[in-house]
Amino acid sequence: MKRLFLNLALVFALCVAVTSCRDKKEAAEAEAQVEEAVEEAVEEVKEAVEDAADAAGDAVEDAADAAKEAAGDAVDAVEDAAKDVKEDAEKAVEDAKDKAAEKLKKDN
In this predicted structure, which of 21-25, 38-42, 82-86 has the lowest mean pLDDT? Predict the structure, then answer.
């Protein structure tokens, strides 16, 4: 009877040891997989943040370029308008001179 209990205790101890080792290996593998997945996710987040920062920087540069171009266009438009006003004023002065000269000729 003692042998039976000793054999059962030995089998039980062996089962516990094998099961325990197997669980540790599986847990270690699962932990390694989780760690690898977390590292990959961190790298992907870093890349996404860098891409977002680059995109924001590009957008700011594009907006600055567009603002400079718009300001340049506005300056050109103001210069053109000033030239047109000057030409129109000169023409109006010439027309007024011509009308005044014609009126003087008619009066004399």
Answer: 21-25
Integer angstrom CA distances of residue 52 from 58, 64, 72:
10, 18, 30
C-alpha span between 43 and 81 (Å, rounded) = 56
CA distances from 43 to 32, 56, 107 (A): 16, 20, 94
Mean pLDDT of 88-94: 87
- pTM score > 0.70 for this model? no
Cα–Cα distance between 34 and 27 in angstroms, integer?
10
Start-to-end Cα distance in the chain:
157
Over the Cα atoms of the chain, what is R_g?
46
User: What 3-state class would DSSP assign to 108?
Assistant: coil
**Dihedral of the CA atoms 27, 29, 34, 39 (nearest 10)?**
140
Q: Which DSSP letter does residue 94 get?
A: H
